[in-house]
Design goal:
Jelly Rolls, Immunoglobulin-like, mainly beta, 37 strands, 4 domains, about 575 residues, about 10% helix, 3 helices, five-stranded mixed sheet
Length: about 575
């Protein structure tokens, strides 16, 4: 741990950084190391000046080697979380600015390089039972270094969650900078932070709704036995429950409002409207607005590496001069983030509707096709092909938003389904790395390329593909999808809106398949030959026996005739 000067370049595999800055600072730190790993950066402690605002004092983080790279997010005095940032490559940059107040700011962060494919057992997951238990990895043995686990708890509606730690032993620090557990009052780490704990204690927490998120983060030293925790769901007080929910998919947005809640405010479904008043709800036991993402007056905005679809439900009293009814303004947002959809619902300050969050994702698939018309997908698995045969690959996005582009950024091949060594680059950063690869221009919701089949030396004939797929706003001419092939040096100048990956395979060479078929065919032929030989032998033996019988009959007849002739011969006299 050091006190680095105002900005520096960091190339260690992992490092803890303690930063102290005073007024009018403008400092940039760059983290870079040539590798195929990504970076996780955690600001476990930060203290800004009391007068600071996000506009004048903040930490801004960028996904690349400079402040011109894609914007990942920021930390400022009102940040109510333990910020964690993850790069998409081996470079990451953060920029700290401070205002003119004479005050010593203190920031503590640690970062490390890691492989996203590596997994730790008992590390995170979704818990949906009404009660349950979970433990830190290796418990009661020391937890691994650089652990980052996220547990999401979601119980039945109209309930809250009680969380208790039966055993808890993490590295002790008064500010919990090194190893810690963070508890959030919602289904994501963007929810309100309930607490950040470390050391030895038996903490207890309670959520305000039926969802809670728990994060375990550790650094490189001083591991202890971790924790054992249990949770239970308890009934939530009736008045606080609004029965309001928001669901987002890659095609639709659905908002559900309870009739009883609307009744309590003096409204019914006829008073409600979206940005486009012609879009009406369906009324059942609840009031439901369900519509395509880009319809009903929904506004789409691109923010950093996400695309947000926003609409508003309003209701207000009509007629008369005065009212004592509350006006309703519910703002609903479907935010398409990396690998997931974060759904946000909030309202203006003079109303009382609880915030709702949930998770989802764009619907993306990848398939082989039998020709460059991309009309007939290959459903066979494994897919048997000839060596050097041209293979056609298409990534497809299923969304009602017509202004989205699909771009295949990187695609690697491996003989193993877990993509362990060796691997081979077909496409990297939008650039063709194999001589046979041909990429097609982006076409609406499709990303396409073709290549010639091959096999790995000294390995099985199986080949698996894993591709990183980017989704961008087609109206943004400077988006990553519009840039095509870019070098590593220029990678930071463009951005994407959403990223996922897809795995395809295995592909098998027909030669091996045919060998197996030939072996089976030879076995069948031999099996068929056996009864034929038996039948031939039977016919031959029958013929020999028949011939022998004929010869015997002929011989007997001849002998009889000869004997009969001798009996009538005259005897000569003496």
């Amino acid at each position: 741990i050091g006190l680095p000067r105002c900005g520096t370049s960091l190339g260690d595999l992992d490092k803890a950084v303690n930063i102290e800055l005073n007024s009018n600072a403008n400092c940039v730190w760059q983290i870079h190391r040539t590798s195929n790993q990504t970076i996780r950066l955690i600001f476990s402690y930060f203290k800004f000046a009391a007068s600071s605002r996000c506009e004048t004092e903040s930490i801004k983080v960028y996904d690349g080697p400079s402040t011109n790279s894609s914007f990942l997010g920021q930390v400022c005095s009102n940040t109510d979380s333990v910020p964690v940032f993850q790069s998409s490559s081996d470079s990451l940059t953060f920029h700290i600015t401070t205002n003119s107040e004479n005050f010593t700011r203190n920031f503590f962060a640690f970062y490390y390089f890691f492989s996203p494919a590596s997994k730790i057992q008992n590390c995170g997951g979704l818990l949906t039972s009404s009660n349950g238990t979970f433990i830190s990895p290796n418990y009661p043995k020391p937890y691994p270094e650089f652990t980052y686990c996220v547990w999401h708890i979601q119980t039945a509606r109209k309930s809250k969650i009680n969380l208790e730690f039966d055993d808890f032993f993490l590295e002790l620090d008064k500010n919990c900078r090194f190893d810690f557990v963070a508890i959030y009052d919602g289904l994501t780490t963007n929810s309100n932070l309930i607490g950040q704990v470390c050391g030895r204690s038996l903490p207890k927490f309670e959520s305000s709704s039926n969802v809670m998120t728990i994060v375990l983060a550790t650094d490189y030293a001083n591991s202890y036995r971790g924790f054992s925790a249990q949770y239970t769901s308890i009934p939530s007080p009736g008045p606080a429950e609004t029965n309001t929910s928001l669901t987002c998919s890659s095609e639709r947005m659905e908002i559900v409002l309870s009739k009883s809640y609307l009744d309590s405010l003096g409204y019914n479904s006829t008073h409600l409207q979206l940005n486009d008043a012609s879009c009406r709800p369906v009324v059942t036991d609840s009031v439901i607005f369900s519509f395509p993402l880009t319809s009903c007056g929904t506004v789409k905005t691109a923010e950093g590496q996400s695309i947000t679809y926003t609409n508003t439900i309003t209701a207000s009293a009509t007629g008369g001069i005065i009212t004592r009814q509350k006006s309703i303004e519910i703002v609903v947002k479907c935010k398409m983030e990396n690998n997931s959809t974060l759904e946000v619902m909030y309202i203006t300050e003079n109303n009382v509707i609880q915030n709702e969050t949930a998770t989802g994702r764009y619907n993306v698939s990848m398939s082989f096709y039998n020709s460059d018309s991309f009309s007939n997908p290959v459903f066979q698995s494994p897919y048997f092909v000839d060596l050097n045969q041209t293979l056609f690959v298409q990534a497809s996005l299923y969304s009602t938003d017509p202004n989205l582009l699909v771009f295949i950024d990187t695609c690697i091949a491996s003989p193993k389904s877990d993509f362990g060594s060796p691997t081979y680059d077909l496409i990297r950063s939008g650039c063709n790395k194999d001589d046979t690869v041909v990429t097609y221009p982006p076409l609406e919701h499709y990303g396409r390329f073709k290549f010639n089949a091959f096999r790995f030396l000294q390995n099985s004939a199986s080949v698996y593909l894993r591709c990183d797929i980017l989704i961008c706003d087609s109206n943004d001419r400077n988006s990553r999808c519009a840039q095509g092939c870019i070098s590593r040096q220029k990678r930071a100048t463009s951005s994407y809106m959403w990223k996922t990956n897809a795995v395809l395979g295995p592909v098998h060479l027909k030669r091996d398949h045919r060998s197996a078929e030939r072996s089976e065919s030879l076995t069948e032929v031999r099996a068929e030959e056996t009864p034929s030989l038996q039948q031939y032998s039977f016919y031959t033996l029958s013929f020999v026996v028949l011939t022998a019988n004929v010869i015997i009959v002929v011989a007997v007849i001849l002998k009889y005739r000869i004997q009969h002739h001798h009996g009538y011969q005259k005897m000569q006299s003496a």
